[in-house]
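user: can you give me the structure for this one chain? tokens are fine.
assistant: on it. calling the predictor now.
[tool input]
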Amino acid sequence: MANKKIELKNFNQEFYDMTDDGSLYVPCVPLNGIVVFPGFATTFEISDSDVIKNCRVAHRQNDDVFVITKKEMNSSGLPSRHSFYEIGCLGKVDSVEDLENGYAKITFTGSVRAILTPKNFLIDGFVYVMPVIEENASRELEVRDEVNIASAKKYYKEMTRLIPHFPKNIKDDVLSEKNLSVMIDKMAFSAFVAYPHKENILEEADVYKRLEKLIELMIEELEFLYNEMDIHKKVKTRIETNQREYYLKEQLKVIKEELDDISQTPSSPFSNGIDVDDDDEVAEYGRKVLEGKFPEEVEEKLLKEVSKLSKTPYSSAESTVLRNYLDICLEIPWSKKTVDKTDVARAQAQLDKDHYGLEKVKERILEYIAVRQLNPEIKNQIICLVGAPGVGKTSVASSIAKAMGRKYVRVSLGGVKDESDIRGHRKTYVASMPGRIVNALIQAGVNNPLILLDEIDKMSNDHRGDPASAMLEVLDSEQNKSFRDHFVEIPVDLSDCMFIATANSLEGVAKPLIDRMEIIELPIYNRREKLEIAKGYLYPKQLKRHGLTKRQLKIDEKVFYDLADFYTHEAGVRNLERQIAGICRKAAKKIADGETSVKVGVKNLTEFAGQRKILPDKIYDIDEVGTVNGLAYTELGGEMLRVEAVALDGDGKAKFTGSLGDVMKESAQIAVSYIRAHASELGIDPEFYKKKDIHIHFPEGAVPKDGPSAGVALACAITSELGGYPARRDVAMTGEITLHGRVLPIGGLKEKTMAAYKAGAKTVLVPEANKKDIPDLDLTVRENLNFVFCKTLDDAFRNVLIIPE
């Protein structure tokens, strides 16, 4: 075979004759992760039946085959020229041996490097290749070359030393090789682990450049081998240390047993035979148990675990589990507690200092403190604070703990959906831990803290269990004195704890859980309360936070009213605090720019807070037919809710718009039925239900509305429209109605009347049964509104509709 010399600088670039002269059309043998060098006999296994067939023919006819390496091992899909390296090895098939499962073992000896041509690739398993002649193979050695050869041999010796069980005869054969090109190929073939490194050497035609590349790759592989050896040593040292420690412990036990037999004295101070030395770690656990003043059942259980630990090998998995269990159980405050402060006056001062309003909560806590003063043994106080976001549920719990002198721990239940979060996991599980209740005791360090169960209404459940069911035992005064956590396995007494739960609504709380708690509803803050909170709490807090003083920033009292009315719409005061913080930031910037003081009033409020964000509800300027002022209660407070009715020519149909719920639609139907039954008395055509269609609409149609308390407003609006009677614009109303016209009591009266006052109403119609709630209304509301108490719809019609005599 006549080889044609090809001019190559780097085999990744194609600098060869593009004609057919010298190219060979030969079978191709693709390999995974194996690189074959010229002059080496290599054995490999293949499974491709076509490749095996071509190898048999080539072996029988003594023809050449081309062996080439895939760039990615086990690559899938149709092979392409780009999925192979460009340089391979041309040579002879020495033997083909059949194996099981369709495989064949091929023995191949390479003869010369060869490069793929850009001609058609893999036609029936054949490729076009061009043999490659080495460059500078006969050049005389220079000083630089001799230095590189010595370096290569040195690095090769070091690599063979680090590679486990490297054959000495191969190393000696490589180092004794006289031909530089063959020596380089032998070094790469025998020492390199990564096949891309071998391919890198195969692809270099220039012998001396190949030598330099070999040295670079040797240095890289040596660094990898050094790191691998270092990791291996560390792992080996750790294993040896654990084995040595275990061996010494076993020796110590045997020696102790021998000494005990001689002296006939107990080997341990513990009653259940923990046979270890007093200085041993296990003995330390035993001493902690005996000195911990634990309940008898707890002490007995922990001593059993200590005894079990003393007989368990240190490096075993069970030993780790036992140590973790003992560490956690010893951290639980089984008998440590704080002494309650029972000074009622001092507690009230503390509560008033931290919070404005919240009278029901404060009164309930002061009652408990007074009872504790008379009967210190009273236990099981479980309270649930229900209210809108931002009204102070979470913060008041911290204030209660401070007033009572108890430790305070917050347990967030929002998003909890696994029972194990409450009860813990079995200690045998990997990464097991106690539940949130036991963790709260450990965090508090005493067994009588105030535990805040925050967002108890946000718990859910899934296939792993229902956490609400686990909470039943926590909040049951008859059961929580022996609460069992899955991890601890010992009854934990929670009866001395004071539990305060918080919820935005009771709709998502299980009824059995509600039954175990004393429910206290926190009302929505009204304007006056927001003013007092802003002046006495939020304003000083933000001044301190922003490094300001009252001399530097003065805020007019009316500003707080405007912030509450026109810049925030909320039940609590969080957004109000953010608005005050924004004013403080702008004031701080002005002072930093050189001003000595800043005063904020209603006139310049827009400079600090921007334009008003909320337009207030106001009564209309004239009395209209078919339009009345209803009142609604929402999570954000009371609102004016206008009701509009229009009668159209038709056949008695009723249409409802404004995103009304089923209950409100039923209230409208009740109102229509009542008016139809009393049409003559009201001066309405008795046949209206045959001639007129009634359309009832509640503005702000995007907001869902529901509830029975709009019954009075619906009846007045429909009567006004059908009779043509104007409705007084300065009257607002609320109340549920029956089919016979009775007015039933409603809730949220405090918030509704405040909305009526803010809108400019003068009179509010209230169910007679709600007369008892008037003293609880805001003082400003009581002084400025006229209340009319209605027993029936007739009372409402007399005070709302302007009917000619």
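assistant: here you go. The first strand starts at residue 24 and ends at 31. The CA atoms of residues 673 and 739 lie 7 Å apart.
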